[in-house]
Write a structure and sequence with these properties.
Layout (H helix, E strand, L loop, with lengths): L13 H11 L3 H22 L11 H16 L4 H7 L4 H14 L7 H14 L1 H16 L4 H7 L7 H14 L1 H20 L4 H5 L5 H13 L5 H13 L5 H7 L2 H8 L6
Helix pairs in contact: 5-6, 5-7, 6-7, 8-9, 8-10, 9-10, 10-12, 10-13, 12-13
C-alpha cells in the first residue's frame, strides 16, 4: 500500500504504530489539560504588574499620642463644657456642688470646678477653719436665689420673710401636698421669669415676681380643675402668662412708654 513502509523480515507491529502516532500527535484532551498550566504564569505576572490601591495613610504613634493628649486636656481645661453638659442630667446635690466649686474659682475669674477644688485644697493647707468658712459662704451665696421661693409664697399675704413663707408652705403641705407642690412650682416660675427679663435681684428676692404665679398655679393645678397632666401643663403655662411685672420695672426698663402716653394724651405709667 502506498504511504506505508514495511519492515523487512518480520510482521507488521500495529501497536507500535499506534503508540508512535499518539505520541507524535497529542489528543485534544491533552492540549486542554496543558492550557491552564501554560496560562497561569502569564496571569500571575500580569496580576503582579497591576498597581494595588493604596489606602489612607495611618498616623504614626507620635501623632496618635498627641491627639489623645489634646483630647484629654480639653476635658479639664477651660470651662469644662463636656463636664457641664454631663452634670445637667445629675441630681440637684451634685449640681450644687459644681456651682460651689465654680463659685470658689470665680474669685480669680475662673469658671472651672477642678480649679475650685484645687483652691479649696490650698485653703485647707493654709487653715481648715478658713476653708470651712469659705465653703459655707460660697454655698449660701449660690443658693441665695432660692430664697425667693418661700418669699414668693409669703407675698400672697404681704410677707417678705423667708421663714414666714416656709411656715406657709408647711401649712399648705398639711392641707394638700398637691397644693404645696403647685405653690412651689408657681414661685419657681415667677423667679425664673424675673431672671429671664433681667429684673433687679432685689425685687426677685422680695418675691414680687412669684405671688401671682403661686395663686394661678394652685387654682389651675388641682383646685378648680381635675388634676391631669394636661391641667398641670396648663397651670405651668398660665404661670408664665400671669407674671406680674412691677410698675417700677415698666418705668425703668421701658421709658418710651411714658413718651407714647404723653403723645396720646394719656396718663403716664
Amino acid at each position: 500500500m502506498p504511504g506505508t513502509q514495511l519492515t523487512k523480515g518480520g510482521p507488521l507491529n500495529v501497536t507500535h504504530l499506534c503508540r508512535t502516532s499518539t505520541s507524535q500527535y497529542p489528543s485534544a484532551q491533552n492540549t486542554k489539560e496543558l492550557q491552564p498550566l501554560m496560562a497561569n504564569p502569564v496571569r500571575e505576572t500580569t496580576e503582579q504588574k497591576k498597581p494595588q490601591p493604596q489606602g489612607p495613610e495611618r498616623p504614626n504613634s507620635p501623632q496618635k499620642f498627641k491627639t489623645k493628649l489634646m483630647q484629654c486636656v480639653s476635658y479639664i481645661a477651660g470651662d469644662m463644657p463636656a463636664f457641664g453638659e454631663w452634670m445637667k442630667g445629675q441630681c440637684i446635690l451634685l449640681q450644687i456642688l459644681d456651682w460651689v466649686l465654680r463659685g470658689a474659682a470665680q474669685v480669680m475669674f475662673v469658671n472651672n470646678p477642678l480649679s475650685g477644688l484645687i483652691i479649696f485644697a490650698g485653703l485647707i493647707l493654709q487653715n481648715r477653719w478658713l476653708a470651712l468658712n469659705g465653703c459655707v459662704g460660697t454655698l449660701f451665696a449660690t443658693i441665695s436665689l432660692f430664697r425667693s421661693i418661700p418669699v414668693g409664697i409669703g407675698q400672697v399675704y404681704g410677707c417678705d420673710n423667708a421663714w414666714t413663707g416656709g411656715i406657709f408652705m408647711i401649712a399648705l403641705f398639711i392641707s394638700s401636698p398637691i397644693t404645696f407642690a403647685h405653690a412651689a412650682i408657681g414661685s419657681v416660675v415667677g423667679m425664673v421669669s424675673g431672671l429671664a427679663l433681667a429684673a433687679p435681684f432685689q425685687n426677685i428676692y422680695f418675691g414680687l415676681w412669684g405671688y401671682n404665679c403661686v395663686l394661678a398655679c394652685i387654682a389651675i393645678g388641682g383646685m378648680f380643675y381635675t388634676l391631669t397632666w394636661q391641667t398641670h401643663l396648663l397651670a405651668v403655662h398660665l404661670d408664665v402668662c400671669t407674671v406680674d411685672v412691677p410698675q417700677e420695672e415698666t418705668t425703668q426698663n421701658r421709658p418710651d412708654r411714658n413718651a407714647e402716653a404723653i403723645q396720646l394724651n394719656l396718663t403716664p405709667l
